Amino acid sequence: PEGRLQLLRLQPGSTTINDLMRWRASLTSFEALAGVRPGHYNVDVDGTTHQVLGAEVSASLFTMLGTPPIMGRVLVAADEVPGAEPVVVVGQRFWLDRFAGRGLADRVWL
Q1: How far apart are CA 107 and CA 105, in angstroms?
Q2: 3-state percent breakdown (helix, strand, coil) of the chain, nearest 5
Q3: Which of 24, 44, 31 is nearest to 2 (CA)?
Q4: pLDDT score for 67
Q5: Rounded to whole angstroms, how far apart are CA atoms 106 and 46?
Q6: Which of 6, 9, 18, 90 is the most buried (most CB within 10 A)?
Q7: Residue 101 gets which letter from DSSP?
Q8: CA atoms 19, 79, 60, 98: torsion sign
Q9: What is the pLDDT of residue 104?
Q10: In this predicted model, what pLDDT tens digit does every residue of 43-86 receive, in sequence order?
């Protein structure tokens, strides 16, 4: 996408999704703002736990990067609302390695 974009690396415990939403609402110099908080996660797939490198990201990240999903969907603004159902986006390599390209519905737990 064209225009001025800002990507923030969020530090654990210092910045919340509410902070990001407040900053996004007051943007004047940028078209979009996204946040990324990298970390290690324990992911349970069909009863087997895997430690993976991942990130908590804001819904705007995929739109900013112009990255459409190969299958399923990416995050949307409604996913950031308190009380929303949890959503996970997995990369193609993880999907192929752990699921052999099968569907994921209700099978991934963080």
Answers
A1: 6
A2: 25, 30, 45
A3: 31
A4: 81
A5: 10
A6: 90
A7: T
A8: positive
A9: 67
A10: 887 788 889 888 888 888 888 888 888 888 899 989 988 899 88
Residue 78's pLDDT is what? 92
Quick one: pLDDT at residue 82?
82
Q: Report the mean per-residue pLDDT for the chain.
A: 78
For the segment 83-101, what is each residue's pLDDT rounded down to a tens digit?
Answer: 998 888 888 888 888 877 7
Distance CA 66, CA 3 (A): 12
**Cα(41)–Cα(70) distance, integer angstroms:** 23
